[in-house]
Amino acid sequence: MPGPTRRLNRNVRPTPISPPVISSFANEPCGQRYAPLGASVPTLPALEPPAAPRHFPFPNTPVDNDLFFEGYMCFFAIATTALQFLHLYRSVWWLPNSYTRLAMNFYLIDPYLVVFIIVTLSRRFVYMMGCVVLNQIVDDRSQYYVHSYFRLVLFGVTSLILAGCMYNVIQNYHLEKMLYLCYPFFIYLLFFGFNIHPFFELIKWKSSVPPLHACSLSAPAVRKEVECLINNFNCRMKEILFTSICNAYYAGFIPCCFAQASVHYDILWASQHVLFIFITGFISLSIHVLSLRYCDILHRSALHLGTWERLETGRTMLLVNNTWKEDTLWPYGALVRYGKDIWRAQGDCNSSEPGNVGLRRFYSVFKNPTYTLGLKLFLLILMVVCQLVLLIRSTLWYKIISLTFILFFNYYILYKLFRDYLVSHKIYREERDLHKKINMR
Question: Which residues form a coiled coil (predicted)?
Fold first, then answer.
């Protein structure tokens, strides 16, 4: 006979499953420091202060001096202006019945417009030449005041010349054309206000003292240094953008804007020429203004700064007893509570503020400057390849001359940028490997 049926006790409850616990160190198993839920209150150890990041000595890479750089940038801007006029006013001088023996119809070009463009594009080169001459005459103690007076005098002379040229240009065009000539000056006021230093100086207009890095173990001092570097970097980026836009605008767009109504030209080719001027000028200016030595200063500050990663808690119970403090340096992987969120420290040494977008962006850009160099190198190579393809497919003489000149200029920029990329990639790869060996991760 079958045995009696067994009944299960309904009062029996399943064993509860304890949720996982994460300690205050993200890279350490929680079982080594904490007990599961339901046990006695664990003892939370104190955080060990992180060691200061070690920096590699950066090699001395050659950098063009300011006079040489302003000289070839002035030459590039004026030459590309002449090429744009060639695109517009080319002639058929090789035909036997041609009315002219010149390659361009110069009588269609407004001379006052040409003077206006040349004065605007060459102002910095003239200022640099004047400063070099004055430095040979006056002593070091008087150079600052002499340069200030020279800037004022040069600014007054430049303003008078531009105003006279603008007055004569408006005599032959509508009044609305004056807005096209003055548009970059409105952008200048928006970027720099009424300060005339960036009108003549490219780098050292904000402060005569170059930015420096101090290996500090004070979190407020690190954040203050990073904020100063961010301001300096933003000023340099504004200078790069304004100069590259100004060169492309006056060298490429203004000749097309003031072209005669009877002139027919290739609009696509002229627009492409403006784009080439902007990209070439932007990359060349960024190489000079944001040099390897300058980027390495920002990189060293980024290593001291670190960043924070916000954790999505979800159903995981985080046992965190550390609250973020502004005067504390946090080690890698430390978990802190800031506001209603929990953050995990990233970087060998962390002095950043959780949730600060500006500091996080600074760290992501300059923790390895090779990425930005690689992006500029890719853009320049892409433009050079496009220009080579256009050169191969071109059959018109003025297009061949235009592309050949810009290509030779881009070859020089490509050489400098590729050299900087190789040096930066080698240095920061060795530095990253060294940090991994020191921290054993």
Answer: none
Show me where the domains of the chain are located: 66-304+354-439
CA-CA distance, 439 to 230, in Å (whole number)? Answer: 28
* DSSP secondary structure letters along 381-405: HHHHHHHHHHHHH--SHHHHHHHHH
Write the DSSP string, 163-182. HHHHHHHHTTS-TTHHHHHH
DSSP string, 15-26: PPPPPPEE-SBT
Rounded Cα–Cα distance for residues 277 and 406 (Å)? 8
Cα dihedral: 130, 132, 135, 140 (round 10)? 110
SS3 280: helix
CA atoms of 248 and 269, how far apart (whole Å): 14
3-state secondary structure of 334: strand
CA–CA distance from 143 to each of 130, 199, 209 (Å)? 12, 19, 15
Joined together, the tokens standing for residue 396 give 């018109």
Per-residue pLDDT of the chain (441 residues; tens, 9 = 90+): 445 544 444 444 444 443 333 344 444 444 444 444 444 444 445 566 777 777 777 788 888 888 999 999 999 999 999 999 999 998 877 777 767 778 788 888 999 999 999 999 999 999 999 999 998 888 888 888 898 899 999 999 999 999 999 999 888 888 788 888 989 999 999 988 888 888 998 876 444 455 777 777 788 888 999 999 999 999 999 999 999 999 999 999 999 998 888 888 889 999 999 999 999 999 999 999 998 989 999 999 998 898 998 887 655 556 677 888 888 888 888 888 888 888 888 888 888 898 889 999 999 999 999 999 999 999 999 999 999 999 999 989 999 999 999 999 999 999 999 999 999 999 888 888 777 776 655
